[in-house]
Structure formats: structure tokens, C-alpha cells
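Predict the 3D structure for this chain.
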Amino acid sequence: MSKEEPDTAANGADAPSWREQAVARSLDSARTRAENRVQRFLDAALELMAEGDRKDFTVQEVVERSGQSLRSFYQYFGGKHELLLGLFEESVRTTTAQLAKRIDSKGGEEPVDRLHTFVVEYYKMCQPPRKGKGREALPSPILVRFALQLLTAHPAESSRAFVPLVSLFDELLLAAIDAGAIRSDLNRQAVTGPVLQVIMFNTFSSAIVDGADDLSAQDGAEALWDVVVNGLGA
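Done. Predicted structure below.
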């Protein structure tokens, strides 16, 4: 008995027509152009943020730096807040990827040590650069300041941007709980937000506590870790 021959007619019927293929190629090309234009706006904003002690920037400055038009900007962004949300989302994604690598290289095997590495390394990333030293990674202090505005004015969008970082922290926290290093009755959803906010917004500590600038990033991170793990009780 011979093998059944493939139904070429049926296969041909399922294949996309030349018209569908042409439209698909056109859409792919348009999508690539759009992604490139959006990235140029994001890169321009990041460049402006990195300049000296700049505390803000305008849409017009971003447009001019990107070499594109104002009309093009508003084709992709509803306003400055959407650009900032895009920057913040990119920042969180980049930071989370870097954190995961550092945890794998420095955190060891014990879950509590990996959680400790998360707190310490993220604290360092959020520190403003000291004189004569560059910044390790985003988020920059200016982006942290914008994050405060975004969390207040656009909480839902900001919350979505935090998903990668929250997921990584929650994964590490759960592993530490399962290992018996952290209380099993802990409400992970209730503590994750406050812990991440305390780490991220530590850039303002020098404005609150006199002498906070004298602490090294490592000392500050270890002090914060002590509070996270042991609390303030005697």
C-alpha cells in the first residue's frame, strides 16, 4: 500500500495570497520604521536627561534633538507623560535584566542571599552619581523624580511599567519564604510595593536626613537590608 500523497491543492489554498504577502511586508516595514522613530525620541530624551544637572526637558527639545518633527512626536505620543512612561518602562526593563544578571553572579545559591543581593544592587543602581563618578545604570535621579509624578498622575500605567521588577522581587521573596528565611505569614503583595519604593526613592534621603550623603552606597544598602529583614523591633 503506497503512502498517501500530500494534498498540494489544500496546502496551496492555506498559503497566503500574493496580496496578503504584500500587505504583510508593507505592515512589517511600517512597524519597523515606527519603532525606529519612537526609539529616536526615547534616545533624545535620555541624552537630555544625562546632561549635567538638568532637572527637566521640553517636548520641543526632544523633537529637535531627535531630528524629527513635532507632528511625528504626537503621532506616537499623546504628550510628554507618555514619553516619560515609555522611558520609565524601558528603564525598569533594563534595570531588571541587569539585576537578574548580578543576582546570578553575586547572589550565590541560598534564597536569602539572592534576595539580599537584589536589595543591595538595586539600592546602588538608584543612587545618584558621586562627584567624578558615572552612574551605574538607569533609573537616573531625574527619572526617579519623574516616577513620583507618574505614580501620582498615572498610577495604572506606572504600575504596568513596574511588572518586571515586581515579578523578580516576588520570585526571590517567595523562594526565601519557602526556604524558611523569611516569615511564612508575610503578605507578599502588601510588602513588595513599599520595599521597592523605599529602595528606589532613597535618592532623596540626603534632603531628609542630615549626613546621609556621608554613607557609602554599600553601607546604605546594608542598613536598608537590615530594616527589610529584621524590622525595627528589639
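Residues 151 and 158 are 6 Å apart (CA to CA).
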